[in-house]
Amino acid sequence: MQDSFVHKGKRKILVEYLREKMGISDENVLKAINEVPRHLFLESIFEDFAYEDRAFPILAKQTISHPSTVAEQTELLELQEKEKVLEIGTGSGYQTAVLIAMNAWVYTVERQKDLHDFSQKKLRELHLRPKFQSFGDGFAGLPTFAPFDKILVTCGAEILPTELLHQLKVGGMMVIPLGKTDEQVLTRFTKKSEKEFEKEEFGAYKFVPMLNNTNH
Length: 216
Hints:
Elements: H1 5-20, H2 27-35, E1 56-57, E2 63-64, H3 67-76, E3 84-88, H4 94-101, E4 105-110, H5 113-125, E5 132-135, E6 148-153, H6 162-166, E7 168-178, E8 184-191, E9 197-205
Parallel strand pairs: 3-4, 3-6, 4-5, 6-7
Antiparallel strand pairs: 1-2, 7-8, 8-9
Helix pairs in contact: 1-2, 2-4
């Protein structure tokens, strides 16, 4: 698949939808979504629908999130250029690509080997380079590279993975969907000190579950 004028036109329509209907106001987020060819992260049978606000199945019984969810989660990070971002759940690599397009230094972890391999290949093809891409357990994070300015968890956690909070620098933020399998609340933690966190909630969503360990 190529990135044609038709695809680019559909992306512009998607960005206007995110701005006007979904209230996304961070122009850096919108610019990144306008740049990243989402259809290339999907199976070709979904290509015609890639710029609709829909989730789609990907490898390993996972999903690629709605563009509006990607935009909302990313906007909540309040991301600045060259901040170190830990992403838990690389998935197909689409969210990773959006973060890289925003000039973040991205460190990303995926527990599904099929998805790790797919996203690594796809990002390489598009000349999008994370600082570090790992096949591993998201609950463990990447302590070697900590602390991080921002942490983004792209899967729903029933319990708060406190190890990730330890890897956040003071002043940093973590955005994570928290709650039971059928529905989570999108939550942002801001690290005020080593032991103090501010917690904010931003509505109900449905994400694939965050699981321990790795799956070959």
